[in-house]
C-alpha cells in the first residue's frame, strides 16, 4: 500500500521510524506499507528522522491528494482548517485516511461520518486521536459490538494527570507543577487546552459517539478544569480516602438520557483510576456483558502515538478498518447535567451562622448534606471548608453555590467537584 | 452468516442470549449472525436460555460439520479430544471457527496454525480463550503489529485471584477461601487446574505465541501454584509493601532468549497488578513503543466470555479475522529459567547457627542476600522466616533450597516466590 504522509513532526517522524525498523515484521504479517511522499511546510528543514528510501518530500498536499498511485493518506499535521480540507479531499477521492487529529474529528464528526459513507472505497481510522497508545478505539469497535456500554470514564489528558499526580504525591503547588509541565514540554503555552479540560473534552466527545452512538457537540459538555485545584483539596481528599483527578465521564441515566462531563473529580482510592499517575491515561468502560474493564497506557509521546497510527495503517493494509468509522447512530438525548455526589469547597471569612445558612441553602436546593469537613484554620479571613453531598445534581449544587456567593462572608466562588 | 454452535452450556447459552438481545444492533453494524444449529450431548435436556428461532438442536456434530450452508462453527463444548476433532474438521472444510478453548489451543498450537494456513477460505478466532472479557488477543494482534513486546505479565486466573484477594483483605485461611471458591462455583473439584497454575499456564502459552511469535509447550513452563501460600506470607508481604498474586510472566532476556513462568509472586503495591482483586484478570504488556499498558476486566463468567465469542463472530462476519491466527513465527530460544529477585520462606526448628549456614549456602549458590525477615515466633519448633535475594536465578535459588532441606532443623521444603 502506497502512503502519503502529511506532516513531518514528532508523530510523523515516529511513524517513519517504526516503519523503518519494523517494516519487515509488518510485511510478514501481511501489511506492506511504503511511504512514497511526505508533505511538510518547509521542505528544506532538516528532520530528526530518516526520510524513507525513495520517498519524495513535497510542500503541497495536492501532490499527494492528486496522486492516483497513493492509496492511503496519513494526516499528522494537526490543526482544524487546512487539515480538514486535506482529509475531506482524501476521503472524497476514496483514499484510506488515517489521522490522530482529535480536535478535527470532535468538531466535524457527523460531516466526516457522512463523507466516509459516501465513498465506500475508502476508509477512515483514528486510533491515535484518543489516548495515544491505548487501543481504546479498536477495543470499542471490536469488543463492545454485541454489548451495551452504560458508562465510560477516564483520565484522558496526560499533562493534567502529570500535574495532579505531582501535587498529590509531592505536595507541589499548582503553579510549580504547571511550570514543570511547561518546561518538560507536556504543557503548551498558554496551557488552556490541557488545564481547562478542552483536550479531554474532544476525546470524550469521540468516545461518546463510539460507545453510545450519539454525537455530543464538544461545547455542550460541561467542563470544569484543574485551574482552581489547590493543595487544600488534596488535604481534604486524604481525609476522604480520595485523590484528585481530571476525568472525562459519560454515563447513561436511568431515564435513558446520557450525561457527559469533564471535571476535576474526587476519586476514591478503591477506584482503579486513582492509582494511575504521571502522564498515563486510563479508560474505564462499564457495560452489560463485561461489567467494568480498565485500559491504561501512555496518553501521548512520539512512539506511543505513532504506534497507534501504524496499527491503523497495518489494519487497513490487511483489508480491515472498512465500514462506518463511528459504528452506529442512536437518538439518545444528551442532558448537560451531572448526577452524583459532590465535593464543594467554600472559602469564608470566619463568623457566626455560616453553617446554619449553608444548611438552609442546601435544604432549599433539595441537597442532602453528607458531611462538613474542615482542616485546621490558618487564617480566619480565608477559611476553607468542605461540604460533601449525598446524590444530587450539578444544577442543584450550582443553585446552592450561586446563593452562597451572595453572603457577605463568602470570599470566592465555591469549587465544585463530583465524587467518583 | 450461518452459524453452527457446538455446546449449549454456560457460554453457549450466553452467546444465544447476546445474539437474541443484540442481534439487531449487530446487524446494523454489518454483522448478520444466525445460529441455525446447536449441537448438544442431550438434545432432550431443558436449557437455561432461549433456543434461537428456526434453530435446530442436534446431537451429532457431523450434522453441523457436513452442512455446507453453515459458514461458521462456534466450539464451546470444552475438552481436548472430541473438540479437537470437530475443530480440525471444521478448519479442513474451510469454515470459520470461533472457540474459547484455551487448553485445546495451548496443546495444539503449531498443528492449528498449519491447518488454518492450509485452507485460506476459513479463519480461526479465539478471543474468549484468554482472560474472558479482556480483549487481549485482539489487542496483541492489532496494537502491537508494529511494536516489539519485551514482557507480558498478568493475573490470568480469576479463581486463584479471588482466593488470594480474600486471604489478603480478610485474613482468611487457604482452606477457607478454597472452600468458598468451590461453593461459589469458581473452583472445580479437584481444584488443581486453577490452584496449581495450569489454567494460567495455558493462557500464558497462547500469549507467548502472540507477543513473541514463539510456541512454548505448556509443560516446559515452570509452574508454582498457590497451594502452599499461607497467612504468614501475607504478613511478610505487608512488611515488604507487597501482596501475593499468581502471575503468568514472560519476558525477553538481555541475551535474546525468552523466560516464561507461572508463579505465586510477591507483587509490590506500586505495581498496578497488586490492586486488581477478586475474580478480575489483568494483563500488563511492556513494549518498545508503548512502554507499559495494562488491561483489566472480568476473567470469566457467562456474559463476559460469551461477549468475546460474539465479538469474534461479528469480526469474522464483517470480513475480518482472516490470516494467520497466531500472527508470526520466530525462532526465539525459550529457557526454563526465572531471573529476578526472590522471596524464600523457610520453616525451621529454632536453634543456633541457622543464619550462618544460610549465609554460607547463599554464597555457594552465588546469591546476594537482600534481607532476612522474621515475624514474632509463636512455636519454636516451627519457626518461619524469610530471606529475600538480590537479582539472581531460580536455578540458584533451587540449589540453595535443595542444600538447606538437608539441614536437620529444616522442617519443610522452602517456599519460593519471585518478587515483582
TrEMBL record, chains A, B:
Pathway: Amino-acid biosynthesis; L-methionine biosynthesis via de novo pathway; L-homoserine from L-aspartate: step 3/3; Amino-acid biosynthesis; L-threonine biosynthesis; L-threonine from L-aspartate: step 3/5. Keywords: Amino-acid biosynthesis, Methionine biosynthesis, Oxidoreductase, Threonine biosynthesis. It comes from the Eukaryota. Its EC number is 1.1.1.3. Residues 7-118 form the Aspartate/homoserine dehydrogenase NAD-binding domain. One of its GO terms (biological process) is methionine biosynthetic process. Residues 135-313 form the Homoserine dehydrogenase catalytic domain. This is Homoserine dehydrogenase.
Amino acid at each position: 500500500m502506497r502512503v502519503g504522509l502529511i506532516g513531518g513532526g514528532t508523530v510523523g517522524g515516529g511513524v517513519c521510524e517504526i516503519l523503518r525498523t519494523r517494516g519487515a515484521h509488518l510485511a510478514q504479517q501481511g501489511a506492506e506499507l511504503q511511504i512514497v511522499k511526505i508533505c511538510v511546510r518547509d521542505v528544506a528543514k532538516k528532520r530528526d528522522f530518516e526520510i524513507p528510501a525513495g520517498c519524495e518530500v513535497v510542500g503541497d498536499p495536492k501532490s499527494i491528494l492528486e496522486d492516483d498511485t497513493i492509496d492511503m493518506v496519513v494526516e499528522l499535521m494537526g490543526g482544524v482548517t487546512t487539515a480538514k480540507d486535506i482529509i475531506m479531499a482524501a476521503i472524497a477521492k476514496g483514499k484510506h485516511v488515517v489521522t490522530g487529529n482529535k480536535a478535527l474529528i470532535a468538531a466535524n464528526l457527523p460531516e466526516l461520518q457522512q463523507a466516509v459513507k459516501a465513498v465506500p472505497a475508502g476508509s477512515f481510522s483514528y486510533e491515535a486521536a484518543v489516548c495515544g497508545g491505548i487501543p481504546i478505539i479498536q477495543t470499542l469497535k471490536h469488543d463492545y459490538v454485541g454489548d451495551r456500554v452504560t458508562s465510560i470514564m477516564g483520565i484522558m489528558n496526560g499533562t493534567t494527570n502529570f500535574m495532579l499526580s505531582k501535587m498529590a504525591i509531592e505536595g507541589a503547588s499548582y503553579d510549580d507543577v504547571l511550570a514543570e509541565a511547561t518546561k518538560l514540554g507536556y504543557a503548551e503555552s498558554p496551557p488552556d487546552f490541557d488545564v481547562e479540560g478542552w483536550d479531554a473534552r474532544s476525546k470524550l466527545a469521540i468516545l461518546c459517539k463510539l460507545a453510545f452512538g450519539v454525537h455530543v457537540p464538544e461545547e455542550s459538555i460541561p467542563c470544569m478544569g484543574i485551574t482552581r485545584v489547590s493543595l487544600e483539596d488534596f488535604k481534604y481528599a486524604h481525609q476522604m480516602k480520595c485523590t484528585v483527578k481530571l476525568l472525562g465521564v459519560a454515563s447513561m441515566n436511568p431515564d435513558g438520557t446520557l450525561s457527559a462531563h469533564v471535571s476535576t473529580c474526587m476519586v476514591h482510592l478503591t477506584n482503579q483510576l486513582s492509582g494511575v499517575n504521571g502522564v498515563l491515561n486510563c479508560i474505564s468502560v462499564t457495560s452489560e456483558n463485561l461489567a467494568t474493564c480498565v485500559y491504561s497506557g501512555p496518553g501521548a509521546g512520539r512512539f506511543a502515538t505513532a504506534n497507534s497510527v501504524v496499527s491503523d495503517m497495518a489494519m487497513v493494509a490487511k483489508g480491515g478498518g472498512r465500514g462506518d468509522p463511528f459504528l452506529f447512530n442512536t437518538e439518545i438525548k444528551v442532558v448537560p447535567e451531572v448526577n452524583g455526589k459532590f465535593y464543594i469547597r467554600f472559602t469564608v471569612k470566619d463568623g457566626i451562622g455560616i453553617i446554619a445558612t449553608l444548611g438552609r441553602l442546601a435544604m432549599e436546593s433539595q441537597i442532602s448534606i453528607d458531611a462538613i469537613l474542615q482542616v485546621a484554620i490558618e487564617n480566619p479571613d480565608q477559611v476553607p471548608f468542605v461540604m460533601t453531598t449525598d446524590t444530587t445534581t450539578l444544577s442543584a449544587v450550582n443553585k446552592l453555590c450561586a446563593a452562597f456567593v451572595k453572603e457577605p462572608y463568602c470570599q470566592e466562588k465555591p469549587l465544585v467537584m463530583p465524587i467518583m
